[in-house]
Inverse folding.
């Protein structure tokens, strides 16, 4: 089956095919991809908003750089003692952290000893507008987890369950290198769907899918004009 797509998307697919040539499931995904619609429905409660943040990339990268000057990326330790491969930091009223004591939100950055940087207006407006476009009006995030992926890093299947308010949706913004997003079910054993996300794509889910398992497949090598050899993900939540 041939793939009809733009030259940029075609190069992206070739990189994935070369990087993960032994992954039959990914090969099946690449062989079946069609041009992505502006809004891709994953379920009745989850959507991908294609290119939704594309015109905001320069402002977003500037905001990420400012945040990480005061709260640098770090590789956190899980309660089981494992070091996470993905670099993380936060902005907003509370930040998600993990260590030997467990997963939780903290108002103070344990590395710097001061509150997390405030959430930029550009972040807040993007999250609210994306949530509204996905059918979740009135979203007011108070926490943004910022993940840094470099080639080879991944995020295993997990679900976001440390928030006090599970009625609010999750808004996830992809920046930089393309990645395969894993969108599973309510059980870790459910086989996840594999969705190619490119810079500027936004995934929103909530309602009956609020606690679905999700993750990110190992990131291939590449070069993004704004973010270089890395991928940044912004995850907005109502935590408190």
């Amino acid at each position: 089956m041939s793939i009809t797509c733009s030259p940029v998307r075609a190069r992206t697919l070739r990189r994935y095919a070369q990087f993960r040539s032994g992954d039959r499931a990914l090969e099946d995904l690449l062989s079946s991809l069609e041009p992505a619609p502006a809004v891709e429905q994953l379920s009745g409660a989850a959507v991908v908003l294609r290119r939704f943040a594309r015109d905001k990339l320069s402002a977003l990268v500037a905001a990420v750089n400012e945040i990480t000057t005061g709260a640098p990326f770090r590789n956190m330790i899980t309660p089981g003692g494992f070091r996470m491969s993905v670099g993380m930091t936060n902005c907003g009223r509370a930040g998600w952290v993990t260590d030997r004591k467990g997963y939780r939100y903290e108002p103070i950055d344990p590395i710097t000893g001061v509150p997390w940087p405030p959430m930029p207006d550009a972040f807040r407006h993007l999250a609210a507008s994306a949530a509204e476009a996905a059918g979740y009006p009135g979203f007011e995030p108070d926490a943004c987890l910022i993940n840094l992926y470099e080639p080879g890093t991944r995020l295993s299947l997990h679900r976001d369950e440390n928030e006090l308010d599970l009625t609010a949706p999750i808004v996830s913004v992809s920046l930089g290198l393309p990645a395969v997003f894993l969108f599973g079910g309510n059980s870790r054993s459910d086989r996840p769907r594999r969705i190619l996300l490119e810079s500027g794509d936004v995934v929103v889910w909530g309602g009956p899918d609020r606690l679905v398992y999700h993750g990110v497949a190992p990131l291939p090598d590449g070069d993004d004009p704004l973010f270089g050899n890395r991928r940044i993900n912004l995850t907005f939540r109502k935590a408190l």
